[in-house]
Amino acid sequence: MTNPTARNHTALPKARILIEALPWLTRFNGKTVVIKFGGNAMVDEELKAAFAQDVVFLRHAGLKPVVVHGGGPQISAQLDRLGIASSFTAGLRVTTPETMDVVRMVLAGQVQRQLVGLLNEHGPFAVGMTGEDAHTMTAVKRHAVVDGEQVDIGFVGEITHVDPGAIQALLDDGRIPVVSSIARGEDGHVYNINADTAAAALASALDAEVLVVLTDVEGLYADWPSSEDVISQLTASELEKLLPSLASGMVPKMEGCLHAVRNGVGSARIIDGRVPHSMLLEVFTDDGIGTMIVPDAQGDGS
Ligand SMILES: Nc1ncnc2c1ncn2[C@@H]1O[C@H](COP(=O)(O)OP(=O)(O)O)[C@@H](O)[C@H]1O
Ligand SMILES: CC(=O)N[C@@H](CCC(=O)OP(=O)(O)O)C(=O)O
Question: Where is this site: Transition state stabilizer (predicted)?
Fold first, then answer.
C-alpha cells in the first residue's frame, strides 16, 4: 500500500509549481504570444516535440500563440544537397532567384509542415501559412550595409506592411497559426525575410503581449564572447545602447525585440531553445529564464 505521507512529499511540490503559475495564467489569459522558433533550436527531434507540447499547452491555458519559424540551417543543408553555395552578408542570406526557390520550398514545404504536424498530434489546431498569404507581410528589396556601403543581396526583403487579419481570424477560431518568414513584394516578387524580423513585425501588428524568441544560447550575454553572463532584464534604451556591440544572429534578434517593445508589445524574451520546455518555464514561473526586454518606463527618455 502507498504511504500517504510519502505521497504528500511528492504531491506538494507539484501543487506548488501549479499554484506558482496561477498569477501568470490570470495575467496572460486571452493575450496573444508570438513565438519565434529558430533553426538552430529546431534540429533536435525531442526538442521539437516538446516545443509543440508547450505551444498547445499555452493555447489550452487561454493564451493565443502564433508561431513564426526560421530554418536557416535546413535551407543551407538543402542548398548544399543541390550543390548551390550558401553565402551571408551582414547576417542575411544572399538570395538569388534559384536560392529563393529553395528557401520557399524548405520553409513552407518542409519546416512549416513538420511543425504543423507535431502541433496537430494534439488536436486540430495548427494552420500553416507564409507571409505571402492574404497579404500578411508585404516587403520591398532590402540592401545589406557593409562598411557604410549598400550591398545588393538579391531577394531579401524589408517588411513595409503587415496585415494581421488572416492570423487574427485563425486565432479567433481557436487555431494556432504557423507562419513562414516569406513576404510578397510590392513589385510582385517573393522575398526572403529574416525570421526574427518577421516575428517582431507580426508581434507589433498583432498587439501581442509577449514576443518569445527561442534560440541556441541561454539569452543575451554581456560582453559575448568573452563572458557568458546572461543579462536577465534590460529596457529598450539600455538595449539600444548595446546594439552596436552585438554580433551575428543576435543582431536581427535584438533589433526585432527593440522594434517590438517600442511598438506596443509588452515584453520580449530571448530563451534557450535547447532546454526542453523552456517556454513554459519562461511564461509560467516567477523567475523566468533567459533575457527579458521591457519598454522604457513612461517619461524615461526615448
Ligand atoms: N551578446 C550575445 N549573446 C548571445 N549570443 C550572441 C551574442 N552575440 C552574438 N551571439 C551569437 O548569436 C547566436 C544566435 O543567433 P542565430 O544563430 O542566428 O540563432 P537562431 O538560429 O536561433 O536564429 C548565438 O549562437 C551566438 O553565437
Ligand atoms: C534573409 C535571411 O537571412 N533569411 C533567413 C530566413 C530563415 C531564418 O531566419 O532562419 P533562422 O531563424 O533559423 O536563422 C535565411 O535564409 O536563412
Answer: 36, 253
What is the domain partition of the chain in residue ranges?
Answer: 28-294
For residue 159, list its beta bridge partners: 139
178: β partners: 67, 128
Provide the annotated binding site for substrate.
71-72, 93, 192
Decide: 132 and 103 in contact? Cβ < 8 Å.
Answer: no
Give the DSSP per-residue string, 204-261: HHTT-SEEEEEESSSSPEETTTT--EEP-EEEHHHHHHHGGG--TTHHHHHHHHHHHH
> How buried is residue 84: exposed, middle or buried, by Cβ count under 10 Å (0-12/13-18/19+)?
middle
Ligand 1 centre and the CA of 211: distance in Å? 17
Task: Report the candidate in 112, 289, 267 with the shortest Cα–Cα distance to residue 204.
Answer: 267
| pLDDT tens readout for residues 180-200 | 999 999 999 999 999 999 999
pLDDT tens-digit series, residues 248-299? 788 899 999 999 999 999 999 999 999 999 999 888 887 778 999 999 985 4
Task: Residue count of the chain, please give it.
Answer: 302
Q: Comparing C-alpha atoms, which of 233, 247, 228 is closest to residue 295?
A: 233
* 155 CA distance to ligand 1 middle (Å): 23
The cell for 41 is 533550436
Q: Which residues contact 75 (CB under 8 A, 6 or more apart)?
A: 39, 86, 93, 102, 103, 106, 107
Instruction: Name residues contacting ligand 1 (CB within 6 A).
Output: 38-41, 70, 72, 215-217, 220-221, 224, 246-250
pTM, 2 dp: 0.94
Q: For 61-173, where are the alpha helices, taking DSSP H only?
A: 72-81, 97-106, 112-119, 165-172
Could you report the per-residue pLDDT of 23-37, keeping only the tens digit for each?
A: 999 999 999 999 999
Fold of 28-294: Carbamate kinase (3.40.1160)
